[in-house]
Amino acid sequence: MSKHVLEKDIALGICHIDGFIPSLIDSGMSGKDFDKPVFGWLTDNAVKYYLKYNKNPTKNVLKRLIEHDPEIEENEAKKYLRGIKTLYKKKPDSPNFSLSELQKFSRKKMFISNLEESAEKIEGNEDIDEVIGYMTTNILELGSMKQKEWEVIDWLDGYEKRQKKRKKKKQNPDLFKSFHFGIKQIDSKIRRGVNIGDMASIAGKTGRGKSVFTIQVGVQGLFQGLNTTHIITENELDQTEGRYDSRVTGIPYDQIMAYDYDGDKKYARKQAQQTIDMLRDNINSKLKIVKCIPNKTNIITIINILDYLERLEGHKTELLIVDSPELMVPLTKFREYRLQKAAVYWELKSLLLERKMIGFVTSQLIRGSDDGMPTAEDMSEAYDKARLLDLMMVLVRTVKHMLTDEALIWIAKARDFENDGQPIHLHTDFSCMFMDVQ
């Protein structure tokens, strides 16, 4: 992405995208990082206005700010007004513009500037040791812009700041993404939902419906305005696509996959198309399904997928579903099998924290009976997986459950909640990939 295109995208984001200015503030960008004066002015003044009033400036607000800015000459003010008017006429190509690209741009520009100044100092016969010291200082400043691997807070002095953040979160829930399952009994027990950086899991024995539950998660992510990426390593792509089609349209999976609309079923095809058209017109978020090769996929593969979707399709992932991590290969090698398999979970958790995503994974249950309620320790490599999961649910379906179209969700672990060990009885209709409260 060229520098001028990037600057324009940032300006369009300020004018049109809700939640863009807080992210811009977090990135550390300011007006001095822009070559075009109007974009630099817009950035600085939009940030000032947001920090003062906790809302985005409108076109009329920006117009008044330009007219009353003593540092802008009359002829220059006219150019600024035309520029702002043009920005509000044009919509951004991608509402999910990547702020990580913005930060890369800022770092690159800062690095080039430091190199140029260092070259000028050397040509001016300045002492080489002083130039090296100058470069070292600036490289350290660049390093401070990287993702921090740790964070320090002062608990006592930070109380008022935390209260202010909690109040802001309550008043502006859209600025603080979280995920809710859309199943009343689960959401009532996990009231704050699954938040950014959290990793939730549905565990169960083979064939119990873990992958079907991920369809519920993906659909709810889409309905809640979260850009969702669903990674599959076990099931086939057309199978997963068909399950989503069935879940959303209500047409049985076997019918929709066989394109069976004969006889009294002929109206179902029209109704399904109307449902998809309605969702396409009313939902701004996207759902991407990606098929990966089992036992050849690792965390680098996932990162490349996320980067590709963001860079080329404008899809910045907010909810990441991985079904199933057990079929991924860890980057870190261990002699012990349990650590080797659990390493994938550690790597996924780090990725969620670094990229500020919400995570949901499936996990294989290899111990414990269906009659007794499984615990986190019944999960394969339990200790190493379960200790980093923020929410672990177990899906139980006995023969009796299957005969009566029922299932049981057991909350085996819920970090920061008091609902561990709470059973949730669900009605199932696997013909349409459906699970909900009885």
Describe it:
The protein has helices spanning 3-16, 20-27, 37-53, 59-67, 74-89, 99-123, 128-143, 159-171, 184-189, 210-223, 237-249, 253-257, 266-282, 299-313, 337-355, 382-386, 399-403, and strands at residues 178-179, 194-195, 199-204, 228-232, 287-291, 319-323, 358-364, 391-396, 406-414, 423-429, 434-437. It is α/β, with parallel strands linked by helices and 438 residues long. It folds into three domains: 3-97; 101-143; 177-437, Rossmann fold (3-Layer(aba) Sandwich), CATH 3.40.50. Strands 5-4-6-7-3-8-9-10-11 form a nine-stranded mixed sheet, with helices on both faces. Strands 1-2 form a two-stranded antiparallel ribbon. Helix 4 packs antiparallel against helix 5 (74-89), helix 6 (99-123) packs antiparallel against helix 7 (128-143) and helix 10 packs across helix 11 (237-249). The longest helix has 25 residues, at 99-123.
End-to-end Cα distance, whole Å, is 51 Å
As a percent range, the share of strand residues is 5-15%
Global mean pLDDT: 83
How many strands in all? Answer: 11
SS summary, helix count? 17
Count of the separate structural domains: 3
Query: Could you give the order of strands across the largest sheet?
Result: 5-4-6-7-3-8-9-10-11
For the sheet with most strands, the description reads:
9 strands, mixed
Briefly note the structural class of the backbone: alpha/beta
CATH architecture label name of the largest domain:
3-Layer(aba) Sandwich
The CATH superfamily name of the largest domain is P-loop containing nucleotide triphosphate hydrolases
Large-scale geometry? globular
Q: Outline the low-pLDDT stretches.
A: none
Per the CATH scheme, the topology name of the largest domain is Rossmann fold
Q: Give the SSE string.
A: HHHHHHHHEHEEHEHHHEHEHEHEHEEE
Q: Report the top-level CATH class of the largest domain.
A: Alpha Beta
Radius of gyration: 26 Å
The share of residues in helices is 40-55%
